[in-house]
Specification:
328 residues; alpha+beta; 3 domains; 8-stranded mixed beta sheet; 9 helices; 39% helix; elongated; PsdUridine_synth_N; Trub2; PsdUridine_synth_cat_dom_sf; RNA binding
Length: 328
C-alpha cells in the first residue's frame, strides 16, 4: 500500500501558476517552492516501523530455575527501516518551469510537478498567447531599453499625443498580423485558414520570430504611458525593444519601466499564488482547481445533459407503453 506521503505527492502532480515578484530570479522561486513541497510531503505521518521476530537469549537468575541460557521469541523493530536511518521518504521533488520571466519582470509563472511536466511540454507546442502590461516613459533611451540601463540619449516628448501613439501601435499591430499569416503553414485562401482565424488558432508551427497579436495603449499621461500586449514566442527584452521602437517612430525616445505578465494561456493573475501561499496545501488546491476547470471545459465542448437523457428516456418509455397498449 502507498504511504501517506506518496498519496499526498500524487495529489500534487499537475500544473499551477505563481506570481513571480520583480527583482527575483525565477530559479529562486522554483527552489523555494520545491523546498516547501518537500517539507509538506515529508511532514505527513510516517508509516510505522516494521517489526520482525527474533529469538533473544537471556539467562535466568531465579532460584530453583535450571542453570543455562534461555531463548525466547520477541518482536523488535527493524532498525534499517527506521526514519532516523533511512531519512525522509522524499529526498527531492522536481518542479518544472514554463515560459520564464527575467529577473526584473513580474507576473504569472506556470510551474508543474510530476506528470504535470508532460502537460507543460504540450503547452509549449501549442499556439497559446501571453498577455503583458508594459509601464513605459518617454524622454530617455538606454542601452538595454529599461529605465535602469545606461542612458544613451534624452529627448523631448511634448509633441506626442495619444492619437499619434495609437496610430503607431496600430501600424505595428498590422505589421505583426501580416507576419503571423506569413509564418503560418496554412493556405490563406482556404476554408481551413478562415476557421482557424475565427477560433484564434492561426499562427506559426513551433518556434518563430516574436509576433505581437495585439497592441494597444490603455493609459496615456505624458511622459508616462501603459501598453497592453498579446504576443507569441516573445522575450521580455523583445518587449522592451518594442517600446524603444515606438519612441523612435514618434520622433522621441522611450524606455520600459516595468514588464508584468497578466496571462499565460489558461492561467491568469487570479490563478497565481502569491509568495505567502507557496505551501504544499495551497499548491494542491491550485492544481485541483486547474483539473476542475479542465473538466468543465470538456463539458462545455461536449454538452451531454442528464435532463436531455432523462427526457429522451421517458419518451422511449412512453412509446413502448403505447405499443404494449395497442398490442393488448
Amino acid at each position: 500500500l502507498a504511504s501517506v506521503a506518496i498519496r499526498m505527492f500524487r495529489r500534487l502532480e499537475g500544473v499551477f501558476c505563481v506570481y513571480k515578484p520583480a527583482d527575483v530570479h525565477w530559479k529562486l522561486v522554483r527552489d523555494t517552492i520545491e523546498t516547501n513541497l518537500l517539507k509538506g510531503v515529508n511532514a505527513t505521518h510516517p508509516q510505522p516501523v516494521p517489526r520482525e521476530v527474533r529469538f533473544l537469549v537471556s539467562s535466568s537468575d531465579e532460584p530453583g530455575a535450571a542453570k543455562g541460557l534461555r531463548v525466547s521469541p520477541a518482536a523488535v523493530p527493524v532498525l534499517s527501516k527506521h526514519p532516523l536511518v533511512t531519512g525522509p521518504e522524499f529526498q527531492q521533488i522536481k518542479v518544472g518551469v514554463g515560459h520564464r520571466l527575467d529577473t526584473s519582470s513580474s507576473g504569472v509563472l506556470v510551474l508543474a510537478v510530476g506528470n504535470g511536466n508532460k502537460t507543460l511540454n504540450d503547452l509549449y507546442n501549442t499556439r497559446i498567447t501571453r498577455d503583458y502590461t508594459l509601464e513605459c516613459e518617454f524622454g530617455m533611451a538606454t542601452h538595454d531599453f529599461s529605465h535602469t540601463g545606461r542612458v544613451l540619449e534624452r529627448s523631448t516628448y511634448d509633441h506626442i499625443s495619444e492619437d499619434k501613439l495609437e496610430r503607431v501601435t496600430a501600424m505595428l499591430e498590422g505589421a505583426n498580423q501580416k507576419a503571423l499569416r506569413m509564418y503560418s503553414t496554412v493556405d490563406m485562401g482556404s476554408q481551413e485558414a478562415y476557421e482557424m482565424a475565427a477560433k484564434g488558432l492561426l499562427g506559426p508551427d513551433g518556434k518563430s520570430a516574436p509576433i505581437l497579436t495585439g497592441l494597444r495603449c490603455i493609459h496615456f499621461q505624458p511622459p508616462k504611458f501603459t501598453l497592453e500586449v498579446q504576443c507569441l514566442n516573445e522575450t521580455q527584452k523583445y518587449l522592451r525593444k518594442v517600446v524603444h521602437e515606438i519612441g523612435l517612430e514618434l520622433r522621441s525616445t522611450a524606455v520600459c519601466k516595468g514588464v508584468r505578465r497578466t496571462r499565460d494561456g489558461l492561467f491568469t493573475l487570479q490563478d497565481a499564488l502569491t509568495r505567502h501561499h507557496w505551501s504544499a496545501a495551497d499548491v494542491m488546491e491550485a492544481i485541483y482547481k486547474y483539473h476542475s476547470s479542465k473538466r468543465n471545459q470538456k463539458k462545455i465542448l461536449f454538452p451531454i445533459r442528464e435532463s436531455t437523457l432523462e427526457t429522451s428516456g421517458s419518451r422511449l418509455t412512453g412509446t413502448h407503453q403505447n405499443k404494449d397498449a395497442a398490442a393488448g
